[in-house]
């Protein structure tokens, strides 16, 4: 695997409160076990941002909008 490796612990950041989910949605939660090959995750490690995205394209849109940068380095993933 080339490029940056996932750190064992990412820096924490305050969580945002979920104000849209209903009790019924929470109680009928659903999920499944998945594997890295099936669920791509890309982490923006630019300036310790550590936000998660489903594709490299989404990270780059985030970078341009939130960091005013087109730098494509410091993206952590196990999918490439």
Question: What is this structure, in a nutshell?
Answer:
By secondary structure, the chain is of the alpha+beta class. Helix content is 21%, strand content 11%.
Structure commentary:
The N and C termini lie close together (8 Å). This protein has 2 helices and 3 strands. It has a 3-stranded antiparallel beta sheet, with helices on one face. Helix content is 21%, strand content 11%. It comes from Pisolithus tinctorius Marx 270.
Protein structure class: alpha+beta
Distance between the termini: 8 Å
Radius of gyration: 15 Å
| C-alpha geometry | globular
Q: Approximately how much helix is present in the residues?
A: 10-25%
Strand order of the largest sheet: 2-1-3
Number of helices: 2
Q: What oligomeric arrangement do these chains adopt? A: single chain
Order of helices and strands: HEEHE
Mean pLDDT: 83
Number of strands: 3
Taking the sheet with the most strands, its summary is: 3 strands, antiparallel
Give the low-confidence spans.
Answer: none
Q: Percent of residues in beta strands?
A: 5-15%
